[in-house]
Amino acid sequence: MLLPKFDFHEPKTLNEACQILAAYGVKAKLIAGGTDLMVNMKKKILSPEQVISISRIGELKKLDTSGDSIRIGSCFTVADLSTSDAIQKHLSALGEGAKNLGTPLIRNLATIGGNLGSARPAADLPPALMAYGAQVVLNSLSGERTLSLDKFFLGPGFTAAKPDEILSEIQIPSLPPHSGAGYINIGIRKGQDCNLVNVASFIALDTDGTIRNARIVMGCVGPIPLRASSAEKMLIGQKPESALFARAGAAASLDSTPIDDFRGTAAYKRDMVGVLTRRTLDIAFREATHRQ
Amino acid sequence: MSEYTVINSRAVRVDTPDKATGKAVFIDDMTMPGMLYGALLQSPLAHARIVSIDTSKARNLPGVKSVVTAAEAGLVKYGVSPARYDETLFCHEKVRYVGDDIAAVAAVDMETALKAVSLIEVEYEELPAVFTIEEAMKAGAPVLHDNYPGNICAEVHSEFGNVEEALADCDLIKTTTFQNKRQDAAFIEPQGCIASYDLSGNLTLYSSTQVPHYVQRTVAMVLKLPVGKVRVVKPYVGAGFGIKASANPLELSACLLSMKTGKPVKMNYNREQVFQYGRARHQFTHTMTTGVKKDGTIMALKHLCYLDGGAYSSFGIATVYYAGSLLGGPYKLPNMKYDGYRIYNNKPACGAMRGHGGVAARACWEQQLDMIAEELKISPIELRLKNMMVAGDVTCNDLNMSSLGMKECIEAVKDGSEWTAKKGKLPKGKGIGMACGFFVSGAGYPIYRSDTFHGTVIVKLTEDGGTALVYTASAEIGQGSDTTFAMIAAEALGIRLEDVRLESGDTDFGVDLGAYSSRQTLMTGHAVKEAAEDARRQVLEVLAKELNVPVENMDIKNSLIEFKQGNVDFTGLRTRYSKEHRGWNDNPADGPLTFREASRIAYLSKGSIVGTGKYKPPELGGKYKGATVGTSPAYGCSAQIAEVTVDEETGQITVDRITDAHDCGLAINVTSVEGQMEGSVSMGLGEALFEEVKFDKKGHVINADLAEYKIPTMLDMPQIKTIIVESNEPNGPFGAKEVGEGAIMPTIPAILNAVYDAIGVRIHELPMTPERVYLAIQEAKKGKTG
After folding, report:
1. Which CATH number is A89's domain given?
2. Does residue B436 contact residue B409 with C-beta atoms inside 8 Å?
3. Shared domain check, A223 and A124
4. Burial of B135: CB neighbours in 10 Å, binned 0-12, 13-18, 19+
5. How close A15 comes to chain B (CA, Å)?
6. Is residue B291 domain-shared with residue B341, that is, in the same domain?
7. CATH number for the domain including B44?
8. Quick check: B784 pLDDT over 80?
9. Disruptive mutation site among B181, B270, B654, B715 for chain A (greatest number of A CBs within 10 Å)
10. Of A87, A143, B422, B454, whose CB count within 10 A is highest?
11. Which domain range does residue A120 map to?
């Protein structure tokens, strides 16, 4: 398969990238790892006239855990996410998503920004990031804005980023004590698979041991990763225990809106949302009881 | 301790250094001066009449050198079996599946060729299409091939013994229906070729093929060339698994385009086209009824099978026969009735794939045997041992088990897996299951009716002495056959492996039917052995004369001449050799006479020393219609035990361990045998759990890539314990027989039986995806509570 013809840009700074993107707008596509874009270009699903690589921009590759929030540059690779001790310590559910994304070769190239920007409903990183309450930083010549990840995804392949905006950074608020998260994805096989269902759950416990806050995010069961709102509501103020988690799973099943496709039926995906919600809540609770 | 010096060991494969460093040349690495690039126009519709084809715009595109359609290619029918030649190179009246070939273009580069293809204007009149067996067999269904009404491509009806009578006397009769799904072999290298037609009218085709010989014949026949003008050369090949075991439209198109332009033409399938071309494992729907006595004695099998064939025959006639005949063994089965139908429809043709015709049938039956064992309260192992054939037994359909280490295989996996400690004692969700299987060690007859030798080999000793050159037309496709034959040549000649240089895969080297039906080790192996022994004899005869020592008093071992009786004075020969190599610093000075000296002396006496070898199986099988399919000079056999964990909430299966024993007669290269065994497990596991080629309602493959067509990854692979059983096959070279295909037979049913052991639910449809397993568990729960 041959790539269509395009002009290639390789800016060294974010500002330079913003300038080029502003000049070409919708005729341009950003490329970081290229694991999604290259496939779509070879299949002729996308034929951008201009391709702007942001992978030479050093400032987009950072991981900063020093401040009030954890800040991850959009070009931080999935391989680095999957092996980072800091991620494992603070954001284990995100690390789990990274470990389960693609193959080692894909992970070496793929970036956290790309996994969000491509807006695939089955992507491995959005559920955990949304569960952690992440927001994204979008840059353009006219400035910088932050946006909750809950409002970032609009549909398969579509995000709230404007044609002249570059996703530069992901910010995750520092986790409160007694909080934890879990992520599980299932597919047909154990590796290199498009997920059938993936779920991330986050809970924070009050000092009395009841659940103060809960976020459950379901992938593959809607056009964008979905919050299981009724399941979340059911948890808050309650004492964590397995019967509650099972009920939350059942509620999440009803919150999901899967469709039949060649990978699986809606009914199966709906049932799996229930199983994975319960299991990820178990993981989150275990972690919450250990995190000081 | 092995009695052999080269074979029956772990040799480093002769192609390892080149493959490990990327130096090995595959089609994709090859280029030629002035080479053009070809591309195919393939049908976007599953069934349509071709009203007109206009190639003028494509021809006028700068850079385009030739555009060919049926008008240029002619309408010579070809295919795999001469009894069902049902394809022409290009469609001329109608197209029968999405991907059917209509035209080909050669241009200066790939971009131009693809552009030209898009400029060819075809007017279609769409016809109603059929995509399933049910649709294709319905009264009044659209017919794909006028001379095959009802879309029945082939049917087989056979009965050995008297099944109804036998069933009437049985204590337990069990009927089950089982279905696998259409497979893709997912070999790593898509088909590709370069054709080069020279000014003297010689056509050389370099191709990623398993069968240079059959490709040579088909190219000559379709393009009406004298077969002596056609040479097919196979560079390194990234596997085939049966799909590359016949000539394909790429090869024929590239040859035609090269003949039209006088320039080399390169063509490749992309991965999507690999799926679109198909020719891999059929979808089989088996219904089997087995009758047994209370003590477990198998009395009769009644078997009905439908094959979802696709648009053309390909290997299909052989497939529909194999699906029946390969149940004749390895159990004693006095009565067997088979009705098989292969049905055309508007999908890509299916063909031959590893374990040709027998894999789904074996899965169905081995699961059924486990069900019978359970009802009779006999252990699955006991049931199998009780009914097992032994060496010398002949099946009811006349297949001769000249060696059969089946019992040894079963004992080996039973011990190797600690079956007794585990069976019936595992927690819910964990299971253990076993199955057996066997396969031909080379088809007894060529695909076309012929008295041809199945393999001829030349061993030529270098004139300066010391090296044996082996020339075989056999096909190294990654399985390790080059190393196997170099080892056999070295053993038979008595020289070290590093003193053999082997060239293969070129029709100029002789006849070899190629890498299919697990035939090369036995058949080509025989020819290699005979050629090497012939060369050895010639060297020893010259020595006998020169030294006045009888041939039988000499031997060659480790590239040295051994004299069995007393001291023989060979200083005269050594002096002669040294004089011819004055100034060389590696002349043998003392020690035994070397093969290097001996073969030089032989050359000086006789000219080039050339040994020839050939092999053709004896007449095999019965006299009934179709008796040839399933015959073989020998049969490999195997047993496997699978251990699985099933997540009952999600339906996910994890295969934890496979214990695998295979009787390959004698392992020429132990490492290669284990490689085939492990590869078979991977392929069988994929078919059992994940793999299915899927279509949309218009006949397009919707998962034509390796992201959505899911073969096992490293993470899915279990621990595999391989155990080689050696039964010393009397009809094999040094006692060797197959491992390439027989090894896949037990994998699927062993997993099926293990899954049942884990969850208590039988699954009769592949692949066992999480969803299918989950639904089966839910269904069973409903049955229990409702």
Report:
1. 3.30.465.10
2. yes
3. no
4. middle
5. 36
6. yes
7. 3.90.1170.50
8. no
9. B715
10. B454
11. 58-173
For strands A166-173 and B94-95, give the pairing.
unpaired
pLDDT tens by residue, B478-508: 999 999 999 999 999 999 999 999 999 999 9
Q: Classify B440 as helix, strand or coil.
A: strand
Q: Domain for residue A192, yes or no?
A: yes
Residue type, B702: I
Q: Do B710 and A186 touch (CB under 8 A)?
A: no
Condensed to tens digits (0 to 9), the pLDDT of residues B424-443 reads 999 999 999 999 999 999 99
* pLDDT reported for residue B573: 97
Asked whether the beta carbons of residue B111 and residue A186 sit closer than 8 angstroms, the reply is: no
A193, A245: one domain: yes
Residue B1 pLDDT > 60, yes or no? no
Helix (H) or strand (E) holding B577: helix B571-580
* A22 found inside a domain: yes
Indicate if B364 and B397 belong to the same structural domain: yes
What is the DSSP code (8-state) at residue B199?
A: T
Q: What is the mean pLDDT of residues B2-30?
A: 96
Q: What is the total count of domains within chain A? A: 3
pLDDT, averaged across chain B: 97
**DSSP, res B683:** H
Of the candidates B530, B534, B588, B589, the one whose C-alpha atom is nearest the C-alpha of residue B559 is: B588
Considering only CB atoms, A190 lies closest to which of B650, B716, B775, namely B716
Q: How far is A237 from chain B (nearest CA, A)?
A: 28
In a domain, A275, yes or no: yes
What ipTM describes this predicted complex? 0.96
Assess whether B273 and B287 both reside in one domain. Answer: no
* Residues B560 and B674 grouped into a single domain: no
pLDDT at B785 over 70: no
List CB contacts (< 8 A) between A189 and chain B. 689-690, 710, 712-713, 715-716
Residue range of the domain that includes B430: 283-445+622-785
pLDDT tens digits along B108-135: 999 999 999 999 999 999 999 999 999 9
- Summarised one tens digit per residue, pLDDT across range B214-255 is 999 999 999 999 999 999 999 999 999 999 999 999 999 999
Question: In chain A, which residues have their Cβ closer than 8 Å to the Cβ of B270?
Answer: 1
Domain-embedded: residue A1: no
Q: Are B73 and B40 in the same domain?
A: yes
Judged by a CB distance cut-off of 8 A, whether residue A191 touches chain B is yes
Q: What domain count does chain B have?
A: 3
Q: Please check whether residues B251 and B349 belong to one and the same domain.
A: no
Shortest CA gap B652–chain A (Å) = 8
CB–CB contact B708 A268 (8 Å): no
Residue B296 has pLDDT above 80, yes or no: yes
> Does A254 contact B at CB distance below 8 Å?
no
> Looking at CA atoms only, how far is residue A176 from chain B in angstroms?
32
Last residue of a domain, one of B230, B259, B277: B277
Residue range B595-608, pLDDT digits in tens: 999 999 999 999 99
Task: Collect all residues of chain B within an 8 Å Cβ-Cβ radius of residue A194.
Answer: 707-708
Residue A39's CATH number: 3.30.43.10
- Closest residue by Cα to residue B462 from B589, B602, B297, B261: B602
Section B616-620 average pLDDT: 97
Residue A186 and residue B652: Cβ atoms within 8 Å?
yes
Listed as ranges, residues in chain A with pLDDT below 50 are none
User: Quick one: what percent of chain B has pLDDT higher than 70?
Assistant: 100
> Rounded to an integer, what distance in angstroms lies between the CA atom of residue B272 and that of residue B322?
29
Q: Are residues B679 and B709 in the same domain?
A: yes
- Chain A residues 73-112 with a CB less than 8 Å from chain B: 103
Q: Tell whether B678 and B643 lie within a shared domain.
A: yes
Crossing angle of helices A242-255/A266-290, nearest 10°?
A: 140
Let me know if residue B7 belongs to a domain: no
Contact B652 A271 (CB under 8 A): no
Cα–Cα dist B619/B638, whole Å: 26
